[in-house]
Fold:
Amino acid sequence: MSSEGSRGKRSTASATRAAATPARVRTIKEIAAIANVSVATVSRALQRPEVVNETTRLRIQEVVKRVGYTPNALARNLRTARTRLIVALLPDIANPFFSEVIRGIEQVAHESGYSVLLGETQSSLVREQAYADMVAARQADGIITMSHRVPKIPMPGRLPVVNACEYVKDKQISSVYVDNVAAAGAAVDYLVMLGHRQIAFVAGPPSSPICVDREKGYRLALQRAKLAVDPALMVSGDFSIEAGERAVELLLSQGQSFSAVFCSNDEMAIGAMRALSSHGLRVPEDVSVVGFDDIRFARYTSPALTTVAQPKNALGREAMAMLIELLADPEVPPRKRVLSADLVVRGSTAPPSPRKRK
Amino acid sequence: MSSEGSRGKRSTASATRAAATPARVRTIKEIAAIANVSVATVSRALQRPEVVNETTRLRIQEVVKRVGYTPNALARNLRTARTRLIVALLPDIANPFFSEVIRGIEQVAHESGYSVLLGETQSSLVREQAYADMVAARQADGIITMSHRVPKIPMPGRLPVVNACEYVKDKQISSVYVDNVAAAGAAVDYLVMLGHRQIAFVAGPPSSPICVDREKGYRLALQRAKLAVDPALMVSGDFSIEAGERAVELLLSQGQSFSAVFCSNDEMAIGAMRALSSHGLRVPEDVSVVGFDDIRFARYTSPALTTVAQPKNALGREAMAMLIELLADPEVPPRKRVLSADLVVRGSTAPPSPRKRK
DNA sequence: CGCCATCATGTAATCGAATACATCGCATGC
DNA sequence: GCATGCGATGTATTCGATTACATGATGGCG
Structure:
């Protein structure tokens, strides 16, 4: 069926600048017929232009452009068993922290001819798995996941998965993340250096290893300063602004005394600042606040937020580089790459005021 | 080649709970061989279970689960000519406005068995086009674009494209967006009602029709109030926080007199507030600020931002519903669906202070 | 002059699943 | 007892590209 008919044979010269051929979905066969060559030649003209005779190539390219042909990627990918597509899984696109990581991923991806598709998982295992299945189903070559779970993909050997921002215990999975223990410790060290003695901590979800690390950093820093770790000053939240608000509300309602709060991410810190000010407490005069991540909004809160800046772009770039390496050679040994994060001091921190609060 | 060999024949009963068969990539042929049926039966057992005999079906399903078989989606999609995948293009994932729109899109998509992949375009035509080509290349069924451009896709008839949040002139493209003229007008009406007479306007990129509309709403509201439209009070920006900052800096450095600023989006409003306060002007006592979008952070600025709330979730839901409708029946007439946006009054607006400023 | 390398191109197999059509067995009706 | 229909399954084609291998033309060289 589908015999080109009408056109075909000797069309190339005549119709070059004729009215645009009505846009249609074309196949390589049609292009071959119009250009009077075989499908193999068309394919070669598009894939490895250097092996086809120049005039033939130009003729084919002209036809392709004129009739508007886009090769069917499904057929091509089926045959070649690669898609040049990778999926980046992020828990929450509303979290500005990930934006820049994504940007880093995309930069490196494009340099190597990969496209990036984003999947929002809302931390749901089901949805993580659904996107991961795209790899099993051969719709994508690999995955960068920004959660602390590795989806199951039935495959031989190494999974084409790289973990970014978080990390998993599985030694086989390459990860890029920051030294959360050290970074959190540095933040608390700074508060201690300012003179704070009662430092509250708003933790993230305990299911996430990096949150455990941030808490560990907090504890170690207190120990270094010979300060007691007071469980009553430790609350946990789910990374949302509201959670930060609730955490501080809780501390205040319990009548806890503290002159600084260290939060496991910036959004909770923003919530914390809000709760403080709605209780008439000034930041940083009455209470200092430190966040983690350095999201874009952190410098626009008032006062601007002191926070631990993760190298977001580098995290993304490095993750993608690792994935590309892995896709090129499944034998490369897995690595855990640890970057460093630096404290950025802004206006939300100051020495504690002499008069004891509350 | 590839004769299953070893196993095959009569394995089903014996190995049911044997040690997991080493994970490998399977094909429908292998499954058929292991289950002792034809590929057609395996395919049917998976696609239309009701047409295969129950015992056969159970046997096949058991094998599928045991050896870990995921059908090759490329092959399937190639054959069936549909992917059940749609791509949502957004200019900037860092912009929290889009997050909720995406969420609406995903909700409806999943209800109808579609998966959503996100493509960040950074407003680059090239990148928009690259993602759009996925449709031409049959890797996705349709596109929801949140920019004011419609990518070119060589296809017969209606393009499987829906426009959300923005809109394009092209009558053939369905769109969902809010009545920006009315919404901007309502915001300015409110400022007028509070007593403001000198209202500055920070516009968005003039290339975007919705920005033109917001400006039109501003002008009309001023006219309704018999106030002059003063070009000196109108500045434009690119939707970033920094742009809002720069816009207000400019007005102040020019010595312009105004008691309120209406910004085309929340991020510019946040920038505006920052510029005002860094010049010692209090919001709202000295200058009132109104934004547009109602992003999540809008209620956490201090003071909380008065803004025009777009029905973000509904925009997403409606866009996806339209796309699904369109994919099911390319004949449905295109529609421009206009939702309404409501002013949310928070703390950044107040009547102008009696003493003239500057 | 004939052999062979080289270049350009064509033919046909292939990727893995879906499915139209064919086949087979068996029960039902006349 | 035989035609009919139906349910269950198998055979073989198809989707649209890539690519190994075959073929044919050309030219250089001994």
User: Anything to note?
Assistant: Residues 87 and 241 of chain B are 28 Å apart (CA to CA).
